[in-house]
Request: fold
Amino acid sequence: MRRTRVADTIQNICGKHAVSEQSFYRWRQRFGGMNVPDAVHLRELERENARLKKLVAERDLEIEVMKEILRGGSWLNSALAQLG
Reply:
C-alpha cells in the first residue's frame, strides 16, 4: 500500500513539474545520495570538464591545420582559392 502512495506521489510531482518519471528516477539514481553542496560542486566540475574538452578539441584542430600547412595544404589551398 505504501509503495502505491509513493508511486502516486512521484507521478504527481513529475506531472506538476512537467518531468517524465524516467527522468526523475535517473536523477534520483545520480543525485539521490548527495546533499546540495555536493550536487553544486558536481555541476561545477561537469561545466569545467566540458570547457576543457572544448579547449582540447580546438587545440587538436589547430594542430591538424598546422600539420596540413606544413605538408603543403592541398585542401587548404583549394579552400582559399574558393574564397578568393
